[in-house]
Amino acid sequence: MKKLAMTAFSFLFISMSIIGQEAQKNLKTGHTDQNKFRQLKDVLPTPNNRRTASGAPGYEYTQQKVDYVMNIRIDENTNRLFGDESITYKNNSKDYLEYLWVQLDQNMRAPDSKTPLAKSESLSSSFEGPETFTKNNLKKPSDFGFKIEEVKNNDGSSLPYMINRTMMRINLPEPLAPGNSFQFNIKWNYLINNSVKDGGRSGFELFPDGNKNYTIAQFFPRLAVYDNVEGWQNMQFWGRSEWALEFGDYDVKITVPSDHILDATGELQNENKVLTREQRKRFEKARTSFEEPIFIVNQEEAEKAEKGSSNKTKTWHFNAKNVRDFAFASSRKYIWDAMAVNINGKTVMAISLYPKEGNPLWEEHSTRVVANTLEEYSKMTFDYPYSKAISVHADRQGMEYPMICFNYGRPNPDGTYSERTKRGMIGVITHEVGHNFFPMIVNSDERQWTWMDEGINSFVEILAELDYDPNFYTGNLPKDIVRYMSIDQNNLSPIMSQGDYVKNFGPNAYTKPAAGLYMLRQTIMGPELFDYAFRTYSQRWMFKHPSPADFFRTMEDASAMDLDWFWRGWFFTTDYNDIGLKDVKKYNLTDQPTQEARDLAKRYNMNLEDYKGKLVFFEEEKEGVSVEAKKALEIGVIKDHMASMSEDEKNSLKEFPNFFYEVTFEKPGGLVMPIIVELEYVDGTKERQIFPAQIWRYNDKEVSRVFKTSQEIKKITIDPDLETADIDTSNNSWPKKDNSKFNKFKKFKIKG
Fold this sequence. Notes:
Layout: H1 2-28, E1 65-75, E2 80-90, E3 97-103, H2 130-137, E4 147-153, E5 161-164, E6 167-176, E7 181-191, E8 203-206, E9 212-216, E10 222-223, E11 226-227, E12 231-232, E13 248-257, E14 261-264, E15 267-268, H3 271-274, H4 277-286, E16 294-297, H5 299-305, E17 313-323, E18 328-331, E19 335-343, E20 346-354, H6 361-380, E21 388-393, E22 398-401, E23 404-407, H7 419-434, H8 454-468, H9 482-485, H10 505-525, H11 527-540, H12 548-557, H13 564-572, E24 580-590, H14 595-603, E25 617-620, H15 628-643, H16 647-651, E26 659-666, E27 675-681, E28 686-691, E29 702-709, E30 713-718, E31 733-734, H17 739-742
Parallel strand pairs: 1-13, 20-21, 21-23
Antiparallel strand pairs: 1-2, 2-7, 3-6, 3-10, 4-7, 5-6, 8-9, 9-18, 11-12, 13-17, 14-18, 15-17, 16-19, 19-20, 22-23, 24-25, 24-26, 26-29, 27-28, 27-30, 30-31
Helix pairs in contact: 6-7, 6-8, 7-8, 8-10, 10-11, 11-12
């Protein structure tokens, strides 16, 4: 037995020695700073004279300028678009350029396009149906894609070029020196796609009566961006991530059938030639109508026009200054209405074009939504600088270009429509018109950072939609991103990911950044600080090319708030927010030393009797144990002390706290967020307290707070209004609720 005891003691000693050695080893092992509040200096690019540490453009910031003169013609019989363009490229950089890169976006759907080959496919076990089978297996590839007829120098000589799928390299005769310009010409044509059957962000819709609605964009070879961040932005267009484009001036003539109504980016130069006297008279009236739209072409006139078909043509001439792109829409089916919008004393025209198939929904809402969007976005950013914004009705489309956008939202054939259809139409018009600000003016790189246009735009969209209808369901609030943030981590990417490889593209590029910025405005910064910083960013980068770092830095620079923890967590990781109530302990005052006090007194040789009436003790309230007598005694001691205070000291006191609750918050989620706590008292009144995210600085797992109250707390709730995208609300209340009923997202719990 003695030997066994000694063996046991030896084993314990050896075990403790090993543990001690391991502890010593751990003490000597270094680690990198993994605190959630560490700065982003290891992630963001180093500031320089082109892009400053404040987030503003530096004194050496430059960007190129590209001007276009174009003649465009649509052949309605063959659906082929013909164009020739003269391009003037101004090299404002300090670099010598050996070649220019031109985007050929229509080649994405060319017969030799790699886009279809980059998609995984399998045979479905279900029957496809003869129409689908024929389309997928028997139909010959359409002859889509640019047909480049010629590329010539301004003197008429041929320019060598090379086409790599959706990019064309123009080889210059000699390097283009800083400050110099180069002018050249491209002649081309392509087959216009049926956007309903073939898909695509532009094209035409064929109606049963043979009429067509042309919504034309990405229709001409466009210069890629050359900047001091990427050099040439010449990533291939795979069909998803959009475009990086330079600003410039456009002079465009568009020839279409003479019975078409057409509108486009820019100012109409030949109104007297393409509009009737009555149409011009109505448009003049619309220019002073700030309350309701005026019809330039009404439904009766549009229905009459669509019954015929002219063999003659008409040329519409537009001029646009300082825009990054050009698009247009043309059809004989259009109803056309417009109204004036007052943007800080400047009149801007809100315009809609739509066939009768869009009514009555479109005449009721489209132009009014355009006007509301211009007003609300201007409040958040800068005064809308262009003269007009156009909403064009196009089935199954939602796309944006300077001054013009194509939007879905079609009622049933009998004119009835659901609330969902109405909401979708209002939402898409708000979103696409809002893109005039992001990225058509605040010109971010869409090919690289989709969230900088889609996400930021979706955030401002929330505010504009709620202004149009306070009960509008936006779908972009923090509570709307919970389900997405709860899915398997294998299907999640950080927001700071290039869009072509992101699995859940919509939530990643639109909803999550929008919800994050809404959270930043409403919960973390407050509207006053946020709005000033956001407006500063928008105005700093009008008509320029901002990067993510420019946005992050400006928001901090203009608000005096350290937000690196937020950018890192929300934008650079797939962490989620889950804050819960781990423990709630209720304490009462007592005049008797607690066991903890006795232990401390013993350790430090204190005689507690010497401190009688001078120390206040808190005793945890156990169920079924009455401490009212002790509490009353201790309150008497405290009140004796208060009686000796001066009148000024007494006046500075608040209501006496009778109850003390020590609340421990836990954080199973990886994100740090503010803790929003709502206290509900027994009399039904409520109080809300917000603890900043910095409460997690020293302990990333759990923190505690003591709530001192004059009356008993009935209920404690974390994030009662679902402001912080908490993915598991089953741990957000005390006393705890029935989890099976309360936590509807439980089955989406994070894996991996």
